[in-house]
Specification:
The protein is of the alpha/beta class. 38% of the residues lie in helices and 26% in strands. The longest helix is centred in the N-terminal third of the chain and has 33 residues, at 2-34.
């Protein structure tokens, strides 16, 4: 009995010491993240030197090299480009729109939607047909729509507490509206920007065309000007809008993902993946989407190196190219993983902006979800309180086929769609402290998963 009690006492002491060591390390991670400017400086450099870094653009090439240089300074065990070719689309000139009514003309704030085709060189001038849903468009049909510009004017639903839910409820008109309108003979499409607030910044995003349907020009309009257009069109029947779009589709371009690793000390063949995407839309510096995610994930490597945290498993950073249009980078990496056959213990993505972290979205089975909830309880004192079933992220989604747990950083997204895909997504909209709290949350989760498994 005495020896049993001694054994139990020693075991309890060991557990307590281990818990204290964990707490101490997590505290160091947060302190380091909050007191260092490197990540924010990296973000400023990326957004100032490589804004508008859509795949295939010169800016995207600058971004890849710039981020590679930032990572190389950290002296990781490996850092290399995963080269591949991808289709591309470029906006050659800013989109234009002019409203005409009762002898007056007013310029509207518009932007090309991704993959939109060009208008004729002289542009097109047509009357407007305003609709609020695909169903309403169907009810009007060819008799009303043919030869007109269809104006989709359904706002994001601000009654929704979750802004991503509101976004999802309005995205069909942006993504599919042009193709649907074209079926009824529309000459072009204008879509109300997917934004939670009224402002003068048009928000872009990808649109898709169905095979066999004539492609027509597809523009987004700022929320303020959408309200103006709707009001004037109702007040003055016969109102017209002239639009001009100048874009180019490119069959293939050479590009690359960026990969870096800190090799595991005991299980180098097992991976904890960190992911974010390098590209941004042509009209924006892309500070929240997804410059902040890139800065955070690079900084996780810096924290591990600076604090001399030697992971048992390999930490692999993948900065993807082409999340916004074709998701080719994520497909290429997923194909590589299928051939490499290395287990990914967890795949973590940051693509919800550099705002205050709340927790993590988990796309995994219930046992993994429970394990991650237990792990992240240790981060509660640092404001991480929501580890819930959810969506991991666009770039890590193809890895689900291998059964890997997918984890997305969950942020306070209430202001995210004030900036998303617009010229308003600038570095000054990112709080260094909030972004770095996200960095520390990710680094701490990596540390806990590496130490305790799932």
């Amino acid at each position: 009995m005495k020896s049993f009690l001694v054994t139990m006492l020693l075991a309890g002491t060991f557990v307590t010491n281990a818990q204290n060591a964990e707490k101490s390390t997590i505290k160091q991670i947060y302190q380091n993240a909050l007191t260092t400017p490197e990540a924010y400086n990296n973000l400023k450099e990326l957004c100032s030197k490589a804004p508008g870094r859509i795949v295939g653009s010169k800016q995207s090439e600058i971004a890849i090299q710039l981020l590679k240089d930032q990572i190389t300074k950290l002296n990781p065990d490996t850092c290399y480009l995963q080269k591949y070719s991808s289709p591309s689309w470029l906006c050659k000139e800013p989109a234009q729109a002019v409203l005409s009514y009762r002898g007056k003309k007013e310029t509207l704030n518009v932007v090309n939607l991704g993959l939109s085709v060009s208008t004729p060189e002289a542009g097109i001038k047509r009357e407007i047909v305003e609709v609020h849903s695909m169903k309403e468009l169907d009810s009007l049909g060819t008799a009303v729509v043919k030869g007109k510009i269809v104006f989709f004017n359904r706002p994001m639903d601000n009654e929704k507490l979750t802004t991503f839910e509101a976004y999802g409820g309005a995205i069909d008109q942006r993504a599919l509206g042009a193709s649907k309108a074209s079926q009824y003979g529309a000459a072009g499409v204008i879509v109300r920007s997917l934004a939670t607030e009224r402002d003068d910044f048009p928000h872009t995003g990808v649109s898709r065309y169905k095979d066999g349907i004539e492609k027509i020009a597809n523009l987004a309009i700022s929320t303020n000007d959408a309200d103006k257009l709707s009001r004037i069109n109702k007040q003055y029947p016969g109102t017209t809008v002239w639009i001009k779009s100048t874009t180019k589709n490119i069959d293939r371009v050479e590009t690359a993902n960026l990969i870096a690793e800190i090799k595991g000390s005991t299980n180098p063949g097992q991976i904890i993946l960190l992911g974010a995407h390098m590209d941004s839309w042509f009209n924006t510096p892309g500070a929240h989407d997804d410059g902040a995610g890139c800065a955070q994930m690079v900084d996780v490597l810096r924290i591990f190196k600076q604090l001399n945290l030697k992971p048992a498993n390999t930490i692999r950073l993948v900065l993807y190219m082409d999340e916004e249009m074709f998701q080719e980078g994520s497909k290429v990496y997923a194909s590589y993983v299928g051939k490499e056959k290395k287990k990914h213990i967890a795949c973590i993505e940051s693509d919800a902006g550099g705002a205050l972290p709340l927790g993590f979205d988990i796309d995994a089975n219930d046992s993994v979800l429970y394990a991650l909830q237990k792990q992240t309880e240790k981060l509660a004192d640092f404001g991480v309180y929501r580890t819930i079933k959810g969506y991991g992220g666009v770039d890590i989604e193809p890895l689900k086929q291998y059964g890997f747990p997918l984890i997305g950083l969950l942020t306070n997204s209430q202001r995210y769609f004030e900036y998303h895909h617009s010229a308003n997504d600038t570095v000054d909209k990112v709080s260094r402290r909030e972004m770095q709290l996200g960095t520390a949350s990710i680094a701490s989760l990596v540390y806990l998963i590496d130490k305790n498994g799932l």
